[in-house]
Each structure stands twice: as C-alpha cells, then as structure tokens.
C-alpha cells in the first residue's frame, strides 16, 4: 500500500466522520421553529449592525511577520535534514540567511510593530 | 551495542497475519481495498474512543486539582459520563442561524476535523502501527495541522457575531505566532536526527532519546515545543480565544448540537496530537528506555509492548498540560504575543544554531560515548 493511497483513506475518513455525524444528528435530532432562534447569540436584545466590518490592524501585522518566518521555515527544513553532510559550509551559508531574517525581526521590533496598541 | 529483543504482544503479528490471510483468499485488488477500509475504520474508531477517554480523564483530573469529586453518576466512577454526553450531543437540535454566511459556516467543522484526522493518521502509535509514514513526516505534520486555523477563522468570521469575530481574530494571531515556535523546535530535532520521517526518527532514538542526545539544546527545544503546543491547542493560560468570561464561547458561539461537538472533539484530539508528536520527536516515541551496558534492564524494558510505552509517554505529557492549565492565570493578548515574538522566537533561532554546532562538533551524547 503506497503512502498516497493511505493519505487519501485518512482524508476520506475525516470527511466521512463529519458528513456521517452531521447526517445522523440531523436525522435523529428534534426540530422546532421559533423566530428568536435565528438571532445571533449576543446580549438578548436585537443586535446592532453586522460584525463584518473593519477590524484592528494589529492582528494583520503579526500575520505579515508570520508569513516571513513561515516561508523561511520551508527553506530551512531541507537544510536541517542534511546538515550533517553539508558540514561547516552549510552552517555558514545558512547563517547569512538567518541573519537577514533576524534583522527583519529587529527592524519590526524597533518600528514598534510588536507593541500592542 | 544493543539488540532488538522480540516482543510477542506486538500488533505487527496481527497485521501480518491478517494481510497474509486476505491475500491468500482474495484477488490482489480486493485484499488491498479491504485493508484500506480497515485502516480507515480503525483510525476513526481510535479517534472517537481516544477523544472520549481524554474528556473523561480531563474532567476527573481537573476535579482532583480543584478538590472536587468530578463525574461519578453514570457508571462506576462515572466512566460512562462521556458516552452519555456524546449521545446527548447527537440528539440536540442543530440551530440554523439567520444572518450567517451559510457556506462558510457549514464548511468550518470540516476544516477542523479533517486537519486533525490527517495529523492523527501520521502518528506512530507503536511498532509499525501508523497509517501514513511520509518521508517528510515532520514537515507534513506542521503543514497539515495548520489547516485547522482556517476552520477557526471561517467559523468566527461566518458567524456574524462580535464575540465570534474577536475570538477568531485572537485565535488566528495566537495560532500563527506559536506555530512558528513549534515548527522551529521540531526543526531542531530534525537537525539532530538527520531525517524527517517519523519511523526513521524513532529508529535513530533506539540507543538514546533525542531529549538526552542533544542535552542543553534539546531541553530548550522541548520546553519551547510544550509551551507553543499548549498555545496552539487554545488551552490553559492561553485560552483567551474562548475566554468564557469575556467572549461567551469565542469562535464557536453560534454553533449548536453536533457542529459544536466537532469543535470540541478537534480541541481534545489536538491536545493528544501535540502530546504524541512531542513524545515521538523528543522522547523516542514507542522506543523503550535503554541504558548502555545494563543488558538485563534493557531486555526487561523490551518486554513491555511498544504501544504501552507510547501511551505512557503521551499520558505523562497530557497530565503535564492539564497541570499547567489549572495552575496559571490567563494571559492578556499583548503578553501572549510578546512571549512568542520577543522571547521564544529569538531563543529558538539561536537554539537551532547551537544544535547545528553541537552536531557538527560531535558533542551529542551518542557521538561522545
């Protein structure tokens, strides 16, 4: 059995768990209608406006920073696997790469991106 | 130096017997098909049963921490409490809320469950007891487990509820931040083992677990992985995405019945997944404890079946996570993000370099002795 077919089986079993569970629950659960039920669960009084609106930008700054390091992780994983074979030359070449990224983090830190306002 | 003693109680005997029996009596295609279906069924059964056991164990341990008795009505010591809870949640009505974005609202539980089942399938529970064993195992796990956050964000955004929205945003910022630390801590161990495949990684820990092998650097990575894994599962002092005193229930406020149940299920399984990956990568997975030179002791350790070793280590780590959960007060969002970006991430970057130097200069325990 190849890994890919097994991967497909695992993926399908996840989907089947949700579909099967929801199907069963819809079949055996009671249904009743009440206009109050469809209201968003907030305070008990009718909600004011929608919640799809402009949101605090602080969260997005962290997301952008995350992107930088996450892409770096993709490059670092193959390097980490064969670091024994690469030896010192592998270490020195990746050192520059890490240094540039650390500079990026230091720049963001200095600019006050990491300060929650 | 060591020899691998045979163990009569391994699952390998059962699976190889089953495989031979199926191939003898059925054509090739159907034998493989039945095996694949069996893998799926066993995986789902393990998934559901483990979640139920975990919920019971957590409630009981929590009760002891808080000097309460905990569930004790359904069955002896309340052991059927979670079975009753599952039945109850199945027969609850699934309420259709008016103002939600319907498609995304119903898609969110799929992301949560599929991401955690995919990660669950990659865990080696014992000797050759795993569903998928990619040669990029560690990378696969970090990649797939991060799909879960899409489910959280979709749930929060599509609910059209302010609490859900704030909860999802906090959860997103927290998850993406701590995912970095978890990934880098695992990468440190990849440097040490020289492989990303889980089975090879465990084989390489036969003589010395990774946490002893890389001494200082491994210990730092282990602690960082435990903290960030804890934060990724939205638990303990890091549970502010669903801080019930401020945000009702966070991103799953609008979900009811089994749809809420799926979020709950995924949360508990994620705790198990984080603990089992920590056990596999740092504590040698299903490998028994071996001490060089103590032949009698080593043989004795090999008599314990591999899955018992695995679940023992995972149980210990889960207990640790519960202990942390009930011992520390909740952090504020700025404290939480500062901990990651100003402490854990820089320490982690330095730690990787330290580990590379340890490996290259031959200062790891297996190189020294």
Describe the protein in words.
The complex is a heterodimer of chains A (117) and B (369). Chain A is mainly α and 117 residues long. Chain A contains 4 helices and no strands. Chain A has a single domain (3-111), classed as Methane Monooxygenase Hydroxylase, Chain G, domain 1 (Up-down Bundle). Chain A has helices at 3-28, 58-81, 83-86, 88-110. The longest helix of chain A has 26 residues, at 3-28. Chain A is flat and about 70 Å long. The N and C termini of chain A lie far apart (54 Å). Chain B has 369 residues and is mainly α. Chain B is built from 16 helices and no strands. In chain B, helix 4 packs antiparallel against helix 5 (137-145) and helix 10 (215-232) runs antiparallel to helix 15. The longest helix of chain B is centred in the N-terminal third of the chain and has 38 residues, at 28-65. Chain B starts with 10 loop residues before the first helix and ends with a helix. The model of chain B has no long low-confidence stretch (mean pLDDT 84). The interface between A and B is large, with 65 and 86 residues.
Keywords, separated by commas or semicolons:
heterodimer, A: about 120 residues, mainly alpha, Methane Monooxygenase Hydroxylase, Chain G, domain 1, 4 helices, about 0% strand, flat, B: about 375 residues, 16 helices
């Amino acid at each position: 059995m190849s890994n890919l077919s097994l991967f497909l089986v695992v993926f399908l079993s996840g989907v089947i768990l949700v579909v099967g569970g929801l199907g069963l629950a819809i079949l055996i659960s009671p249904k009743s209608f009440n206009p109050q039920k469809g209201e968003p669960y907030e305070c008990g009084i009718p909600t004011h406006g929608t919640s799809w609106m402009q949101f605090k930008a602080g969260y997005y700054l962290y997301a952008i920073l995350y992107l930088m390091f996450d892409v770096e992780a993709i490059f670092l994983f193959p390097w980490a696997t064969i670091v024994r074979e690469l030896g010192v030359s592998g270490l020195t070449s990746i050192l520059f790469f890490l240094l540039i990224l650390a500079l990026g983090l230091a720049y963001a830190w200095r600019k006050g991106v990491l300060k929650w306002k | 130096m060591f020899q691998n003693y045979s163990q009569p109680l391994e699952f390998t005997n059962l699976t190889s017997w089953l495989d031979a029996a199926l191939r003898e009596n059925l054509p090739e295609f159907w034998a493989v098909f039945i095996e694949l279906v069996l893998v799926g069924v066993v995986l789902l059964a393990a998934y559901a049963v483990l979640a139920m056991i975990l919920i019971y164990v957590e409630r009981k341990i929590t009760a002891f921490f808080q000097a309460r008795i905990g569930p004790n009505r359904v069955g002896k010591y309340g052991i059927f409490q979670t079975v009753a809870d599952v039945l109850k949640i199945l027969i609850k009505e699934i309420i259709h809320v008016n103002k939600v974005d319907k498609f995304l609202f119903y898609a969110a539980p799929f992301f949560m469950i599929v991401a955690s089942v995919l990660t669950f399938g990659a865990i080696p529970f014992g000797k050759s007891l795993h569903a998928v064993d990619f040669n990029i195992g560690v990378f696969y796990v970090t990649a797939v487990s991060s799909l879960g956050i899409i489910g959280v964000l979709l749930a929060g955004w599509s609910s059209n509820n302010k609490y859900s929205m704030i909860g999802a945003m906090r959860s997103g910022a927290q998850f993406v931040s701590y995912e970095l630390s978890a990934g880098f801590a695992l990468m440190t161990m990849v440097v040490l083992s020289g492989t990303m495949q889980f089975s090879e990684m465990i084989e390489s820990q036969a003589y010395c677990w990774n946490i002893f092998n890389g001494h200082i650097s491994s210990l730092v990575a282990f602690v960082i992985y435990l903290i960030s894994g804890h934060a990724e599962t939205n638990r303990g002092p890091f549970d502010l995405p669903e801080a019930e005193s401020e945000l009702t229930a966070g991103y799953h406020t609008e979900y009811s019945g089994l749809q809420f149940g799926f979020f709950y299920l995924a949360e508990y399984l994620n705790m198990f997944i984080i603990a089992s990956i920590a056990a596999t990568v740092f504590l040698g997975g299903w490998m028994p404890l071996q001490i060089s030179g103590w032949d009698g002791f080593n043989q004795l350790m090999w008599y314990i079946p591999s899955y018992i070793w695995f679940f023992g280590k995972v149980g210990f780590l889960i207990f640790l996570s519960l202990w942390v959960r009930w011992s520390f007060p909740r952090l504020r969002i700025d404290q939480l993000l500062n901990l990651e970006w100003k402490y854990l991430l820089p320490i982690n970057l330095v730690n990787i370099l330290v580990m590379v130097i340890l490996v290259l200069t031959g200062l790891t325990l297996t190189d020294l002795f």
